[in-house]
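User: two proteins, same treatment. go.

Assistant:
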Amino acid sequence: MSNKAGTSQHSGTPGGPSAAVMATYARQDVVFERGEGSWLIDTDGHRYLDFGSGVAVNALGHAHPRLIAAVTEQAGKVWHTSNLYRVAGQEKLAERLAKVSFAERVFFCNSGAEACEGAIKTARRYQFVSGHPERCEIITFQGSFHGRTLATLAAAGNTKYLEGFGPDMPGFVWLPTGDRAAVEAAIGPTTAAIMIEPVQGEGGVRTIPAEDLKWLREITTKHGLLLVLDEVQTGMGRTGKLFAHEWAGITPDVMAVAKGIGGGFPIGAVLATAEAAKGMTAGTHGSTFGGNPLGTAVANAVLDVMLEPGFLDEVQQKASRLHQALARVKDEHPDLLLDIRGKGLLTGVRLAPPVGDVVKACMAEKLLTVGAGENVLRLLPPLNVTDAELSEAASRLSKALSHVAKASA
C-alpha cells in the first residue's frame, strides 16, 4: 500500500506543481491556458512569445483557424476506429505525402520516437526479406537524437539518456559525423542501413553538409544498404523546404516524420519507397492510434496550408530575416553569443554562458526558447511567424543576454 502522507495536493494550477505527475521533466513553473498564433497566454494573463513551438511541433502556431475547423468537424463524426478498418483521412494523407515526396508507402503512428522505431524496423525487415537476415546493424551518428524508446535511445547512443535502463539494445554502430573513412570501415556483412538527421536539433543544431548527405546516398546504394533519414524535427517545412533532404538534392529510402505534421496533434509517419517497404506486410508492425480520423484530419489541414503557393518561400525569407536579426544581437553581445547556426527556422545560437541560464533569462523576458547540446539555444518559431515577431524575439533575446551578463559580473 502506498503512503500518500505529505504528498502535494496541488491540482496543477499556478499554486504549484502536482506531485501526482512523474517528475521526469525540469518544468518551468508556468501554466498556459490559451494561445494565439505565435503567442501563449498563462493563467495570469501574461503573454509569451513562443519561439519553442512545443519543440518544433506547433508549426502553424496556436489556435490556427483551419486546424480548429478540421478537428472540430471530424470530432463531430468519428474519433477512432483502429486500423482494423480503412480510414479515409489516412488514405488521403498517405496519397498526398507520397505525391509531394519520394515515398510510395506510408505507415502512421503517434510520435517521432515511434516513427524512428518504425523506420528502424522497416530497414531491418527489408534486408530480412531480401535474403540477408544477418544484415541488422544500423550505422548512426554521435550527437543524434531519435527518441526515448529503448531502440531509439540505443540508436543515438547518448549515455546520459541510457543510464539506468539496463543493457543497451544491440544492433547500432555510432560514428562521428563527417568521418567518411569511419563509415567505410564500419560497413560490413551485418550492416543494414545508415540513419541520420539532416540537422541534429537536440545535438546542437548541427547541419550535416549537403556533400556528406550526397555521399551517404552514394555509399548506401553502392553497398545495398538503405538510407534512413530522421526528419522528425527538420521535416514539414521547418528548414524552408517541405523536407530538409531536398536541399541536398537526394532522396532517402526510408524517412521518419512527426512534430509539425500534426500542428500540435500527436501524429507521426514512416515514409518509404515501395522497395524499402516490401517487408512490412500484414502483422509485421502496427499502431492502435496511428493515423486515426482525428489525427489525419488535422494533418491534412496542416498540409493544405504548407502546400499553398509561396508558403515555403516565405519560410525561407523569414529564416533570412531571423538570422539577420540574430547577427545584430551577436554584434551587441560578441562575448556571449558565439555563433549562429541551423537551417531555415530551425535556428540555434551557441552561447558562452550556460544555456540554461539564458533559457531562464529569456523566460523572464516572456520569450520561450529551447536548449540543445553544445550549449546551444534553439529558436523554433511557428512557420507563419510575422516579421514584427521575429524582431521582437531578437530584442528580447538581447535583453536576456544583458541580464545574464549583469548577473555574472
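Protein 2:
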Amino acid sequence: MLRTSQKIRLTNSDGFKQKLLLWAQQFKNVVWLDSNNHKANITFDAILAVDSYTKIKTSDKNAFEKLKKYQLETHDFIFGYLSYDLKNNLEKLNSTNFDGLHFPELYFFQPKKIFIIKQNSLEVKYLKHLSDEITHDIHEISSQKEKENTVTNCNIKPRIKKQAYFKKFDALLEHIQKGNLYEVNFCQEFYSENTHINPVSTYLNLNKISKPPFASFLKFDNHYLLSASPERYLKKNGATVISQPIKGTEKRAVLKTEDELLRKNLEQNPKEISENIMIVDLVRNDFSRFAEKGSVKVDELCKAYRFKQVHQLISTISCNVNVHTHPVDIIKHTFPMGSMTGAPKISAMKIIESIEETKRGLYSGAVGYFTPNNDFDFNVVIRSILYNANNKYISYTVGSAITSKSVAEKEYNECLLKAEAMKKVLLNTK
C-alpha cells in the first residue's frame, strides 16, 4: 500500500503529543503508543494510528489464521490487539468466567493516517489518496484544547474479597505441592459499574504518574484501553526476536538510600529470582519452536529496573528467525506470554480458568503493530484501565506470581501495590 511520508519539525513534542491524542478522538479506531522517553530498544518516542481503511475483528477459533491472511493481504502497517483468551485458539481451553467488558478477542486495522514522533521530529505517513489532508490536519491538531477530566459515580469493588483470595491462594499452593504447577500468575479484578470517565484525561493522568516505556491508549468504537504497561511481550526487528518478561516487584521509597536498598534487595531476593528464571526458561522453550538452531540466548537475567511506582525484575531473551518464518506464527508459538500464565503453561492456563472469577479478555493480552516488512512490537497489557463506554463498566486487573515460597498476605499486598496508580486516577486522589 502506497503512503505519502512527510517530516515536520516540532518545537514542543510533549505538548504536541497531548494535542495529537485529543485530535484523534474524532475517529472510531485509535492506537497510541508512548515510550515516555525510555530509550531501551525502542524505535520511536510515540506513534499514533487512526481511522481504519480496512480492519479485522473476530472472536472465532480461526483468529490467528485470519490475522495471518489479513497481514499478508494488507502488506502495510496494521495496529491492534490480541486478547488473552485467544489461548483457546491454540490449546483445548475455554473461557467461561464473567465478562463485563465484552471486547472482541482480536482487533486490527490498517490506518489511513500514522504519526511517528522521534525527539523533535514528526513523521506523518498517510495513504496516498489522503496526502492533501496533511496540512489541514496539522493545523487542527495544533489548535486542540485540553478537556476537563470527569469521573462520575466511581465505586471500585473487588471481584474477589480478601478472605476468598486467601482460600484461592491455598488451592493454588496445593496444586504446586502436588506438582501440577511450578508457578502460576493469579489475577483479580477491581471494577466499577454505571461509571462515566473521560478516557483521554484519565489516560493522561495515569501516564503522568507512571511514565512507563510501553504506555498505550486504544479506542475501538466504544471500547477503551488506558495502559501504563512497563512490560514488552515480543519484538521482531529483522531476523531478531526478543522478549522481556517481568517477574519480581518491590515498592519505591522516597529517600534515595532506602530506595536503592529496596532495589538491591529485589535483585538478590531468592523467591523473586526463582519466579523470573522459571519464566525465562518458559520463554526459551517457546522460542525453540521457531528459532534458528543454537540462536536462543539470555541477554540479561533478573536485572532490577526503576519505574515511578515500583522496582521490577526484567530479563531479556533473544533468538534469530528464518526470513521465511511468518510473524504471526512467531506470536502463535509464544502466546499468551509466560509472565502472565505460569509454568507449565498449559496446566497453568487451565487452573487459572478454574480459580479466577473474571474472564481476562484484553488484560494480559498485547497491544502493538506490524510493519510492512514483517517486523512487529507488542506490549503486555498490565497496569491498565479497561472501559466499555456503552455499558459504563470500568475494570482493572492485577496479579502476582504464586510459587511454593509465596505467602498469601504478601501476594495480596503486591496486587494492591500494582493497583495503586489506577485507583488513584479513578478516585481522583493523590
